[in-house]
Design brief:
The complex is a heterodimer of chains A (about 170) and B (about 400). Helices cover about 80% and strands about 0% of the residues of chain A. Chain A has about 170 residues and is an all-alpha fold. Chain A is elongated and about 85 Å long. The termini of chain A are far apart. In chain A, about 25% of the residues are buried. Chain B has helices spanning about 20-35, 80-90, 105-115, 130-145, 155-165, 175-180, 205-220, 235-240, 255-265, 280-290, 300-305, 320-330, 335-345, 355-370, 380-385; strands at about 5-10, 40-45, 55-60, 65, 70-75, 95-100, 115, 120, 150, 170, 195, 225-230, 250-255, 270, 295, 315, 375. In chain B, strands 3-2-1-6-8-9-10 form a seven-stranded parallel sheet, sandwiched between helices. Chain B has a six-stranded parallel sheet with strand order 13-12-11-14-15-16, sandwiched between helices. In chain B, strand 15 (about 295), helix 11 and strand 16 (about 315) form a beta-alpha-beta unit. Chain B is elongated. Classes of the chains: A mainly alpha (about 170), B alpha/beta (about 400).
């Protein structure tokens, strides 16, 4: 009799553990999505600011062309090419801003301030997203999650190679 | 930043009315956020429930447990857990900010109980412990729930990476820099004086290193005096001091904020001989903001806070000879000392709450993306959904 009781207890625990693990993974997947949405939004805003900078007094015609092309590429990029395109935009912005020329107007200063605020935020957003992705990948490697297919049909999140120091 | 006012819940693991760095940090952050118009509630263990500000909710009386080489006054257990759950469900928070969630405390309980945007700040820096292998698997899924992790220093961040294999964003502890900006120079504290602030009875604060260095320093600077401020029984410490040097010491006891600002403006050098167990070193940030030239041991937290010696001189930790050498060098050269203090003072502005709290707030904003508030986690459990018990 006691044996059955023990078995029942074990079974209940196992069920609880599976449910708990599924919730855990579900939460992680959710976080991958939200952190990506956040990062995506910030990157879109950066591309918009870059376009404005390209149109402003800050950029000479050549850099303006380069920047406009890079910003459009970053906006239109597919998932696979996204990180490359964003790095390209970072590079183009870097080229223009590290030139060390003086900022004249009021609007230009405003633009640059916005850009630097965005850059700070993007840096944090990247680290949050990368953390969520690596966590999820790590957890999905664990035997319990593999054997019981707790991930269901959710695709394995992809790591993006964001070069944080390029920003 | 945003116009939206948030409902923020802060959880402080250590007893609210016992002195400590984490408590000060939580108090200052709470008051800053309240001043910005947000609704803030702090949950903390409290000894004397009569004497708490109205934004603090008591979770019960703290108990003392030995942890990480010191006695921590924390709280846990079923009753505390019930209170944590009640606080979360009554609070209707947009976001919870848990301090030190990796130690057995109400922060960990809150992390366990809550679902939604959770931000965790890790304060402690510790050497790798064997015990972590045992508790890691239990802690891991709980810590994983944090939407964003903050470490107060590089030392705290590497502790986190080593122990729990997760990364964190570094946001330093905050100080009210303007409180220290305009200290007055008091004649009785100026001259060839070495300042020390802290609970000097604790061995890890390293006052004994300074005691050992003093005879060497006195040989070169005959009029050197040591001013020690902070709570403690000075008698025990005084007995350790060589009788010939005893007249060089002055114990000021606990000093007020105003006195502290004056103290930091007056002393020739501020000495921080801590031997370890320090994660950030808020007192160094305050000393820099107060315009003191700082000499500190080269433990990792101080080394990174002082920019590898750029904003304050470093000496080899627990080496009195090296401390004496650095002190004598700076006492001799007024110009060098003044330049060091000036660099430090400008640098300390980055620890001002205006900067630090905005950084923390922008992490809040990121954690809030795509969420609709904090709920109790059992309401969201898969089987509750399965049974049709949808949370409210």
């Amino acid at each position: 009799m006691e044996k059955y009781f023990l078995f029942a207890l074990l079974a209940i625990f196992a069920l609880w553990y599976l449910s708990y693990s599924a919730t855990r993974l579900d939460r992680l997947h959710h976080r991958v999505e939200t952190s990506w949405a956040n990062l995506d939004g910030l990157l879109q805003r950066r591309a918009a600011v870059a376009l404005e900078i390209a149109k402003s007094e800050l950029a000479d015609p050549a850099s303006s062309l380069l920047l406009t092309a890079a910003a459009h590429q970053a906006r239109d990029a597919q998932m696979q090419t996204r990180s490359q395109a964003e790095s390209g935009l970072s590079g183009a912005l870097g080229l223009l801003l590290n030139d060390g020329h003086l900022v004249a107007g009021f609007i230009e200063k405003d633009l640059l301030r916005e850009l630097s605020e965005l850059t700070d935020k993007i840096r944090v957003a990247i680290s949050l997203h990368v953390d969520a992705v690596t966590r999820t990948q790590m957890v999905r490697q664990k035997p319990v999650f593999k054997i019981f297919r707790l991930a269901g049909t959710a695709p394995l999140p992809v790591t993006y190679e964001f070069e944080a120091d390029v920003l | 930043m945003t116009l939206k006012k948030l409902r923020i819940g802060l959880v402080c693991p250590y007893g609210w009315d016992t002195p400590g760095g984490v408590q000060n940090h939580v108090r200052d952050l709470a008051e800053y956020l309240i001043a910005k118009g947000h609704y803030v509630s702090v949950l903390a263990p409290v000894i004397d429930e009569e004497a708490i500000p109205n934004y603090v909710t008591s979770a019960g009386k703290p108990i003392s447990i030995p942890y990480n080489g010191a006695v921590a006054r924390v709280l846990f257990g079923p009753i505390a857990f019930a209170r944590v759950r009640q606080w979360i469900s009554n609070g209707k928070f947009d976001l919870l900010h848990l301090h030190e969630p990796a130690i057995p405390s109400i922060s960990l309980l809150a992390c366990w109980a809550a679902e939604g945007p959770l931000v965790g700040t890790f304060h402690a820096a510790a050497k790798r412990q064997k015990a972590i292998f045992a508790i890691g698997p239990i802690l891991e899924p709980v810590i994983e729930k944090l939407t964003a992790r903050i470490a107060v220093s590089e030392a705290a961040r590497s502790t986190l990476t080593e122990h729990l294999e997760t990364d964190a964003v570094v946001v330093p502890n905050g100080i009210y820099a303007d409180r220290y900006r305009d200290g007055e120079v008091r004649p009785q504290w100026s001259g060839n004086t070495l300042g020390f602030i802290g609970r000097y009875e604790e061995p890890r604060k390293g006052l004994s290193v300074l005691l050992e260095a003093l005879p060497i320093i006195a040989r070169f600077a005959p009029d050197v005096r040591v001013l020690v401020a902070g709570p403690g029984e000075s008698k025990d410490v005084q007995d350790q001091i060589d009788p010939q040097l005893r007249h060089r010491f002055e114990f000021l006891g606990r000093i007020s904020e105003k006195d502290k600002a004056d103290f930091l403006s007056s002393v020739a050098l501020y000495i921080a001989p801590n031997t370890g167990g320090e994660s950030f070193g808020i007192i160094l940030a305050e000393a820099l903001a107060g315009g003191a030239a700082v000499v500190a041991s080269d433990i990792p937290a101080f080394d990174s806070l002082l920019g590898n010696g750029e904003y304050g001189a470093l000496f080899q930790s627990e080496n009195p000879q090296d401390l004496a050498k650095v002190v004598i060098d700076l006492l001799r050269e007024d110009e060098k000392r003044r330049a060091l203090a000036q660099r430090g003072k400008a640098y300390a502005q980055r620890f001002d709450w205006d900067v630090v709290a905005e950084d923390i707030f922008s992490i809040y904003e990121m954690a809030l993306v795509g969420s609709d508030g904090v709920t109790l986690s059992s309401e969201n459990r898969a089987w509750n959904r399965f049974l049709g018990r949808e949370g409210n």
